[in-house]
Structures are given as structure tokens and as C-alpha cells.
């Protein structure tokens, strides 16, 4: 053994060439990061030629305690085995390693063994390490996606747009996924390593990481902290003073970094779009094509009966003594990931719903999915995972009941079979615009196919007994302009009489402040009046909402819910109308003038004008951008008076080339969640060639 000691003098992982070929150069240029199902080459340097009849063997080790060892075969065998080829002469050997398309993802240690003719280890070099990721460019990988434009968006794009607001007033915020920022990949594997399965049986967990169904499900459990060492602590009501308010985040990277640096302690706080965005970052980083989805008028059906029962007292106030009650969310975010499902019948491949927001237990864990989008559209609710819950999110009925003080349900005042699951949205592949994917989840409203799906799923397809009577002569609707937060505004309630005689009725109009997931924050305004509506006429009433009234109870989501109840002699039942009114927010102006060149200083100019009739205290700008700069805070000195413009500037040096987004958030005591964004095109340094003529 000693006669050949020191023969292997260098192992070159050829990270620059391999990472470029494997589309991982954005993650790291020094460490080797490759994708499964695609070969990569390394070079061995020897101090002399290999001794006669000696040969090389390769062994891979996986796991913190190296629980899994894989011997790399010398020639191509079955498709599910690692193998390598060897080329070289004298003192240099090129090894090309081939991983199977279903290889385990993770952090590998590579041991190169020089073997004697009788099978003994003469020398070994075992310090080389590399990471292996899923490969959506490989036809044999179950995450294979054949469209390059989709791959550029759903794997490679570090910037995104999240849709929020209401179905009829959709707004958007920019988000920095940052999946290729420094050490984010390491934190993604740290997330996997801290799951319950990994801590309980690490060898079994590692071996199952070849399967993106298993890994993606684990990620939905680990992004929230309910019952495990997860990343984010969910909270849906103020105060957030012991953490960061959900609306202040503009990217996933600071969240993942904070979780890791704090010793895998949950970061405070997240809500649905934050959970979904962090899951999107982790999945894209690991190589699973993923996009963030927003479902407007999303149902949370706790009892699985495919209906949301809303219990109200005679004053139209929530009257629900159940510890866990159905709720309607103005919007709800989850992610879709692309994969082939070997565990399901044909037709369930493609986009899979994954919901990391902790809502209901699934096999004992707060996770949801993966659930095939095709199964939801077709009403096939027996497939894994959580199909009935996801189906209800986009299809449930909303039934409003009037309830007696003793809890008895007296009567249904409104049945809505069309509102849930509206304008389901994601960012377009072709730019910063919205793509509507509602028809991926459901057939057109009222179509024959929709009725067939409802019958298959067990959802009611006709009006129940209380809805079969002939409609009355009065109709009720609520209309409003798009009001701006900080202003007084009017809501118009219209009563239309379609009958041939005059109608007399009592009209109750109520405005309440709610969160986006229907938690009540307080009553802003209430009016009860008697109205007379002439035959074939429309009567209008105005509900005036003053800033001083609604600012006392409005949530950080700036959402007002207006209810109108009309009771008239001769009508079969009271008539109810409900409208969710989001208050629009001002925007920040973000400008980055001049040409952006990598590693050369650039200055951003940020400005904002206070639109409120009151001063703002404690103003702070948060700035971040993938490839531009890490999350940075700029505090505003003093108060910002009504109508005052505040301007700040920030210098930074871009770290990576390409089209980048600079994201800015402004928060203060009275005005929160004000966003702005600027696009920055970062170019390579230009080095001119100088030719000297003689």
C-alpha cells in the first residue's frame, strides 16, 4: 500500500463546465451542483500512470451520518443504477458519471478508490462533494416538462407576482423567490433534514427523496411550523410586534435565512401568500417546476360537506359557537408543481396542488397535496392527496342562515352556488401579466360538464327545497367605485321592483371590517330604513363610509364587507346581498437610472407621498432584489405629514447579470403594505480589446 501512497494528487470536479451544462451556475460556480439523469465529468490527476491491473472504483455516500452508500457500476447496467466511464492516458483520467433519472436528491460525498488486482483498496480520495437535484429537462425524470419557456419561468425565474384583493378587483404584489441566492439551496436541504420523517428514520427518509411526491408533501408540512420544526409561524390577526407582519415580507430569502440562523426556529409571521411563496422557492430550487396560484373566493370547508354554512343573528352579525367553523377567504394562495404520478391511475399527471398553509390535518400532519388539478376538474375525489378539501376550495356552496339565540337554524336567507372559485390566477410565462387558469380547475359555470362533475363529487346540483319557490318581485344589489384607503366613499344599495305593484320593505345596510380570511374586526356603519319602491323602478340608497369611522377597525388587508338585507311582506324569504370592497393603496415610485453593470455601483431613488389626512409615524422602507442586494431597511426620520413626499436613495452593486427586479415595501403606524418595483437589466463588464499598430 505504501508504495503507491500519494498517487492521486487531485480531483477536479469541473464545477464551472458541469454547472453550466446542468443549468445550476446561478446557484454556485465553485461547488459542483448537478441534475439527475444527466452525465457529468470529473478529472483525476495522478503523480504517475495507474499501476498494471489496478482499477478505479467509485462509491457515493448520502446522509448526515452517511446512512446510504451507493457503489457506482463500471459499465451501463439497468436504468436505475449509477454508472461511470473512464478515459485517459498516463497521469490524467476523465471520469464521466451517469446518475439514474430517479436518483435520490441530496448532498453526496464521492469516494474514488484505487483497487489492487486482488480487490484491496490501495489508495482513496474521498473529500469530493456535490449536490444532486431533480431534472425537469430530462425526459425520464418524473418532473420532466417539455416546454423550455415554461422551464425558464417555473424553475429559473427568481422573481414573481402574487395576486391578491378580490375577484372583481385584483391587485398584485411583486415577490423575490431568490431560489439561486447564496446558500438558499443548503437551507432547502436543511428544511428536508428537519422534517419529522427525517428525524425519525433518516435512512428511509433519504431513500424516499428520489420521489417528488414525497418531497413536495414534506415541504408543504415543513413550510408551516404546526407540529414540527417548520419555517413559518402563521398568524391572522394583529399584533405582530414580536415578529414581522406578514404583509411586510417581499421575498422568501430573509425568511429562510432567519429560520436557519435561529437554529431552525419558526419565523414570525406568515399568511397564505407567504407560505405559498416560500414553498415555491424551495421547490424551484430543488428542480421541481412550480408556480404560485391565487384562488379568489376560496372556501375553507371544515366538515367536508362541500358547503360553507354561515350562521348570522337577526342583526346580520356572525353567530357561530362552533370551535372550528367554515369560512370564505377573499383570496387564498397555494402552489402547483409539475410531476408524473406513478402512484395514481393515468390522467392524474401534470400540475399538482400543494397547499402549505396550515388549515386541516392530512394523515396527521398540517399539509395538503399533492393533488392532481385534473382530478379536481373531473370531480374524482378518491385520489391522493386531499382531493375533497381542494375540490371544496373551488366549488363549495355558500349558505347564509339566520340563527335563533339558542342556536337553532331558522331559515336560509341566501344560497350562493356560483361565487366560490373565481378568477383563479397565476403569473403569465410571457411577462408580468395575469394568466387565468380557472378552466383548469372547473368547467364553465352552468355547463353540462359542470353538472356531471358535481354529481360525481356528491355536490348538490339543483336548488334545495327552500330555493325552488318562484322568485319574488324585489331584487337587491350592491355597487361601489374603487375606493382609496384614506378617503370617504359611498356604497350604493339598489332595490329593483320587477312587479306590477309598489313594494314596501325594510332595508338594513351594514359595513364591517374583515380580514381577507373573513375574521371580523368591527362594525364601521349600520343603517336600517323603510323603503318604498314603485313598480318597475329601481330605488337607490347611499351608505356613506368615512375614513375616521373605518380606520378604527380596518385590518391590514384594508377590506370592508357590506351586507344588505331586505325584508318585505309578500316575499318568500328575506333577500341578502354581500360585497367585499378592497380599499386600494398608493404605490411607491422606484427609479434606477443609468446602465447597470455587474459589480459596479448603482443608485436607486425611492419616493412616496402620504395620501392620508393624518401624519405617518415610524416609516420604514425595506428593499431587496435577487442578484442585486440582500434585504435592507431604510428608516424615515421623523413623521411624514399629510400630502408630504418622502424620498430616499440607496446605492448597491449588482452581483449577477440578467433581468432583475428591485422590490420595495413601505410600512408605518397607519399605512402598511405599500409596494413598489423597478426592473434592472444587469450587463456583463465590457473589456475592450486594444490593438497596437506598429
From TrEMBL:
<dbReference type="InterPro" id="IPR002931">
    <property type="entry name" value="Transglutaminase-like"/>
</dbReference>
<protein>
    <recommendedName>
        <fullName>protein-glutamine gamma-glutamyltransferase</fullName>
        <ecNumber>2.3.2.13</ecNumber>
    </recommendedName>
</protein>
<dbReference type="InterPro" id="IPR038765">
    <property type="entry name" value="Papain-like_cys_pep_sf"/>
</dbReference>
<feature type="active site">
    <location>
        <position position="272"/>
    </location>
</feature>
<keyword id="KW-0012">Acyltransferase</keyword>
<dbReference type="GO" id="GO:0003810">
    <property type="term" value="F:protein-glutamine gamma-glutamyltransferase activity"/>
</dbReference>
<dbReference type="Pfam" id="PF00927">
    <property type="entry name" value="Transglut_C"/>
</dbReference>
<keyword id="KW-0479">Metal-binding</keyword>
<dbReference type="Pfam" id="PF01841">
    <property type="entry name" value="Transglut_core"/>
</dbReference>
<dbReference type="InterPro" id="IPR050779">
    <property type="entry name" value="Transglutaminase"/>
</dbReference>
<dbReference type="GO" id="GO:0046872">
    <property type="term" value="F:metal ion binding"/>
</dbReference>
<keyword id="KW-0808">Transferase</keyword>
<feature type="binding site">
    <location>
        <position position="397"/>
    </location>
    <ligand>
        <name>Ca(2+)</name>
    </ligand>
</feature>
<dbReference type="GO" id="GO:0007399">
    <property type="term" value="P:nervous system development"/>
</dbReference>
<dbReference type="InterPro" id="IPR023608">
    <property type="entry name" value="Transglutaminase_animal"/>
</dbReference>
<feature type="active site">
    <location>
        <position position="332"/>
    </location>
</feature>
<keyword id="KW-0106">Calcium</keyword>
<dbReference type="InterPro" id="IPR036238">
    <property type="entry name" value="Transglutaminase_C_sf"/>
</dbReference>
<feature type="domain" description="Transglutaminase-like">
    <location>
        <begin position="264"/>
        <end position="358"/>
    </location>
</feature>
<dbReference type="InterPro" id="IPR013808">
    <property type="entry name" value="Transglutaminase_AS"/>
</dbReference>
<feature type="binding site">
    <location>
        <position position="445"/>
    </location>
    <ligand>
        <name>Ca(2+)</name>
    </ligand>
</feature>
<comment type="similarity">
    <text>Belongs to the transglutaminase superfamily. Transglutaminase family.</text>
</comment>
<dbReference type="Pfam" id="PF00868">
    <property type="entry name" value="Transglut_N"/>
</dbReference>
<feature type="binding site">
    <location>
        <position position="395"/>
    </location>
    <ligand>
        <name>Ca(2+)</name>
    </ligand>
</feature>
<dbReference type="InterPro" id="IPR008958">
    <property type="entry name" value="Transglutaminase_C"/>
</dbReference>
<dbReference type="GO" id="GO:0005739">
    <property type="term" value="C:mitochondrion"/>
</dbReference>
<dbReference type="InterPro" id="IPR001102">
    <property type="entry name" value="Transglutaminase_N"/>
</dbReference>
<feature type="active site">
    <location>
        <position position="355"/>
    </location>
</feature>
<dbReference type="InterPro" id="IPR014756">
    <property type="entry name" value="Ig_E-set"/>
</dbReference>
<feature type="binding site">
    <location>
        <position position="450"/>
    </location>
    <ligand>
        <name>Ca(2+)</name>
    </ligand>
</feature>
<dbReference type="InterPro" id="IPR036985">
    <property type="entry name" value="Transglutaminase-like_sf"/>
</dbReference>
<dbReference type="InterPro" id="IPR013783">
    <property type="entry name" value="Ig-like_fold"/>
</dbReference>
Amino acid at each position: 500500500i505504501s508504495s503507491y501512497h500519494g498517487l492521486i494528487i487531485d480531483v477536479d470536479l469541473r464545477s464551472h463546465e458541469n454547472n453550466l451544462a446542468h443549468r445550476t451556475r446561478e446557484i454556485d460556480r465553485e461547488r459542483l451542483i448537478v441534475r439527475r439523469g444527466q452525465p457529468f465529468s470529473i478529472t483525476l490527476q495522478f503523480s504517475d500512470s495507474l499501476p498494471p491491473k489496478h482499477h478505479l472504483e467509485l462509491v457515493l455516500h448520502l446522509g448526515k451520518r452517511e446512512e446510504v452508500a451507493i457503489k457506482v457500476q463500471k459499465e451501463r447496467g439497468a436504468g436505475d443504477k449509477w454508472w461511470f466511464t473512464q478515459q485517459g492516458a498516463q497521469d490524467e483520467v476523465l471520469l464521466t458519471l451517469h446518475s439514474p433519472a430517479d436518483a435520490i436528491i441530496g448532498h453526496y460525498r464521492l469516494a474514488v478508490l484505487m483497487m489492487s488486482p486482488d480487490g484491496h483498496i490501495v489508495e482513496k480520495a474521498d473529500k469530493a462533494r456535490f449536490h444532486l437535484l431533480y431534472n425537469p429537462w430530462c425526459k425520464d425524470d418524473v418532473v420532466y416538462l417539455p416546454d423550455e419557456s415554461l422551464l425558464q419561468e417555473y424553475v429559473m425565474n427568481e422573481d414573481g407576482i402574487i395576486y391578491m384583493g378580490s375577484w372583481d378587483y385584483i391587485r398584485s404584489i411583486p415577490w423575490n423567490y431568490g431560489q439561486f441566492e447564496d446558500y438558499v439551496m443548503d437551507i432547502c436541504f436543511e428544511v428536508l433534514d428537519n422534517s419529522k420523517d427525517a428525524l425519525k428514520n433518516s435512512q428511509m427518509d433519504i431513500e424516499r427523496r428520489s420521489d417528488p411526491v414525497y418531497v413536495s408533501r414534506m415541504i408543504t408540512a415543513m413550510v408551516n411550523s404546526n407540529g414540527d420544526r417548520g419555517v413559518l409561524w402563521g398568524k391572522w390577526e394583529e399584533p405582530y410586534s414580536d415578529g414581522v407582519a406578514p404583509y411586510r415580507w417581499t421575498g422568501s430569502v430573509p425568511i429562510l435565512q432567519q429560520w436557519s440562523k435561529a437554529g431552525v426556529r419558526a419565523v414570525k409571521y406568515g399568511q397564505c401568500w407567504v407560505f405559498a411563496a416560500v414553498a415555491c422557492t424551495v421547490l424551484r430550487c430543488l428542480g421541481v417546476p412550480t408556480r404560485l396560484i391565487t384562488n379568489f373566493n376560496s372556501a375553507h370547508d371544515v366538515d367536508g360537506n362541500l358547503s360553507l354554512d354561515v350562521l348570522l343573528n337577526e342583526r346580520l352579525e356572525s353567530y357561530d359557537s362552533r370551535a372550528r367553523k367554515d369560512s370564505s377567504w377573499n383570496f387564498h394562495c397555494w402552489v402547483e408543481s409539475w410531476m408524473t404520478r406513478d402512484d395514481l391511475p393515468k390522467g392524474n399527471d401534470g400540475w399538482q396542488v400543494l397547499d402549505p398553509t396550515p388549515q386541516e390535518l392530512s394523515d396527521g400532519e398540517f399539509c395538503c397535496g399533492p393533488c392532481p388539478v385534473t382530478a379536481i376538474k373531473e370531480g374524482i375525489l378518491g385520489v391522493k392527496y386531499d382531493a375533497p378539501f381542494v375540490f371544496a376550495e373551488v366549488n363549495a356552496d355558500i349558505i347564509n342562515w339566520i340563527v335563533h339565540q339558542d342556536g337553532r337554524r331558522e331559515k336560509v336567507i341566501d344560497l350562493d352556488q356560483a361565487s366560490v372559485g373565481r378568477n383563479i390566477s397565476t403569473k403569465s410565462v410571457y411577462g408580468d401579466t395575469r394568466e387565468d387558469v380557472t378552466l383548469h380547475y372547473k368547467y364553465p359555470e352552468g355547463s353540462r360538464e359542470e353538472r356531471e362533475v358535481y354529481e360525481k363529487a356528491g355536490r348538490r346540483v339543483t336548488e334545495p327545497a327552500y330555493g325552488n319557490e318562484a322568485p319574488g318581485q324585489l331584487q337587491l344589489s350592491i355597487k361601489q367605485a374603487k375606493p382609496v384607503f384614506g378617503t370617504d366613499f359611498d356604497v350604493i344599495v339598489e332595490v329593483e321592483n320587477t312587479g306590477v305593484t309598489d313594494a314596501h320593505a325594510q332595508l338594513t345596510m351594514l359595513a364591517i371590517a374583515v380580514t381577507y380570511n373573513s375574521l371580523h374586526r368591527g362594525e364601521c356603519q349600520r343603517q336600517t330604513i323603510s323603503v318604498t319602491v314603485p313598480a318597475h323602478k329601481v330605488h337607490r340608497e347611499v351608505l356613506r363610509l368615512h375614513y375616521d369611522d373605518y380606520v378604527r377597525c380596518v385590518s391590514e388587508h384594508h377590506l370592508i364587507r357590506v351586507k344588505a338585507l331586505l325584508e318585505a311582506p309578500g316575499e318568500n324569504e328575506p333577500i341578502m346581498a354581500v360585497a367585499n370592497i378592497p380599499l386600494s393603496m398608493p404605490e411607491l415610485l422606484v427609479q434606477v437610472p443609468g446602465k447597470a453593470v455587474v459589480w459596479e455601483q448603482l443608485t436607486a431613488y425611492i419616493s412616496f407621498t402620504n395620501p392620508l389626512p393624518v401624519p405617518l409615524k415610524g416609516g420604514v422602507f425595506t428593499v431587496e432584489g435577487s442578484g442585486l442586494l440582500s434585504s435592507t431597511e431604510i428608516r424615515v426620520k421623523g413623521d411624514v405629514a399629510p400630502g408630504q413626499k418622502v424620498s430616499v436613495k440607496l446605492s448597491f452593486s449588482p452581483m449577477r447579470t440578467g433581468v432583475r427586479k428591485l422590490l420595495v415595501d413601505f410600512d408605518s403606524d397607519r399605512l402598511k403594505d405599500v409596494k413598489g418595483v423597478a426592473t434592472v437589466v444587469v450587463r456583463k463588464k465590457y473589456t475592450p480589446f486594444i490593438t497596437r499598430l506598429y
